[in-house]
Design brief:
By secondary structure, the chain is α+β, with helices and mostly antiparallel strands. The protein folds into 2 domains: about 5-115 and about 250-260, Roll (Diaminopimelate Epimerase, Chain A, domain 1); about 125-245, Diaminopimelate Epimerase, Chain A, domain 1 (Roll). About 15% of the residues lie in helices and about 45% in strands. It has 4 helices and 18 strands. The protein has an 18-stranded mixed sheet that branches. A hairpin with a 2-residue loop joins β12 (about 175-180) and β13 (about 185-190). The radius of gyration is 18 Å and the shape is globular.
C-alpha cells in the first residue's frame, strides 16, 4: 500500500497539510480528497515543498484542488516545516513561489517572519453596492470596510463578491475589516478555493494592512486581529514604496504528524 508522510499545521487557525514526500499525489482530485474534512485529512490547503539549488520550491493548492500562486499563512508554516525537517539548516531560507522569490526567517520555534510579494496599486470599485478596495498580494483581494464585523454574514456576502463580474475571470478573496485605530483592525476573510470563511488569511491580512496604511496616518507596523483571535503583524518600509517591501509576522504551529495511506486515489 502506498502512503506519504505529512505534518498538519496551522498559521493563526488557517490549517494545512504540509509535506515534502514525493509519494504525495498532486493531481486536482487527489488534493481535494486529502483536504476534505470528512473523507481525508482535512485542511484549508495542501503545501508541497522540494529542495532546489536556488532555494525551497513552495507549491500550494486550495482545498478544491486548484493551484494558487501564494499563501501567506502557508508560507510561514512551510518555513517552520523546513526547519523541523532539515530542508533549511539555518533560521533563514529562500522560497521559490509562483509569486516570486520570497524570504523567511524563523524568529523562534513557532514564530515566522516572511517577505510578502509586492502588492499592486489598489483600485476602488463599487461592487453590488459595496465599496471595495481591490489589490493583489500574490493573489487577488477585495477589502471591504464594515461597522459591525461580528454580526456580518461573511459567507453570504463574500460569496456574492467573490464571483462578481468586476473580478472576473479569476475571482477574488474578500476581506471584511473593522478599523480599531490607525494601526489596528479586525478582519474576517472569505477565501476563494475554500469557498467559505477561514480563521485567518495571510495575504488578506497584508491587503488589509495596505488599506489601513493608505487611508490612515499611523505607524509603519500594523496589527491585525484574525477570526481565530490570533494577532498577525505587517511591517512596511520607513522610506520608499510601501507596496514593494512588506513583511508578515505570525504563528506557525505543528498540530500533529502522520502517515496517510493512499487507498482512495
Amino acid at each position: 500500500m502506498k502512503s506519504f508522510e505529512f505534518d498538519k499545521m496551522h498559521g493563526a487557525g488557517n490549517d494545512f497539510v504540509v509535506t515534502h514526500d514525493p509519494a504525495c499525489p498532486l493531481d486536482k482530485e487527489s488534493v481535494a480528497l486529502i483536504c476534505d474534512r470528512k473523507f481525508g485529512i482535512g485542511s484549508d490547503g495542501l503545501i508541497f515543498l522540494s529542495g532546489e539549488a536556488d532555494g525551497i520550491r513552495f507549491q500550494f493548492w486550495n482545498p478544491d484542488g486548484a493551484k494558487a500562486e501564494m499563501c501567506g499563512n502557508g508560507l510561514r508554516c512551510a518555513m517552520e516545516y523546513a526547519c523541523n525537517h532539515g530542508l533549511s539548516e539555518t533560521k533563514e531560507a529562500v522560497f521559490l513561489t509562483d509569486s516570486g522569490v520570497l524570504s523567511a526567517v524563523r524568529l523562534y520555534p513557532g514564530s515566522i517572519r516572511i517577505r510578502m510579494p509586492q502588492a499592486t496599486e489598489p483600485l476602488m470599485k463599487t461592487v453590488k453596492g459595496y465599496s471595495t478596495y481591490f489589490l493583489k498580494v500574490g493573489v487577488p483581494h477585495a477589502v471591504v470596510e464594515v461597522d459591525d464585523l461580528e454580526n456580518l454574514d461573511v459567507k453570504k456576502i463574500g460569496n456574492r463578491l467573490r464571483y462578481a463580474e468586476e473580478f472576473a475571470p479569476e475571482g477574488t478573496n474578500v476581506d471584511f475589516v473593522e478599523v480599531i485605530d490607525s494601526d489596528h483592525l479586525k478582519i474576517r476573510t472569505y477565501e476563494r478555493g475554500v469557498e467559505d470563511e477561514t480563521l485567518a488569511c495571510g495575504t488578506g491580512v497584508t491587503a488589509s494592512a495596505v488599506f489601513l496604511m493608505k487611508n490612515m496616518e499611523g505607524c509603519k507596523k500594523k496589527y491585525i486581529f484574525c477570526r481565530s483571535g490570533d494577532e498577525i503583524s505587517v511591517e512596511f518600509p520607513e522610506n520608499g514604496n510601501i507596496l514593494k517591501e512588506i513583511y508578515l509576522t505570525g504563528p506557525a504551529v505543528t498540530v500533529f504528524s502522520g502517515t496517510y495511506n493512499i487507498t482512495s486515489f
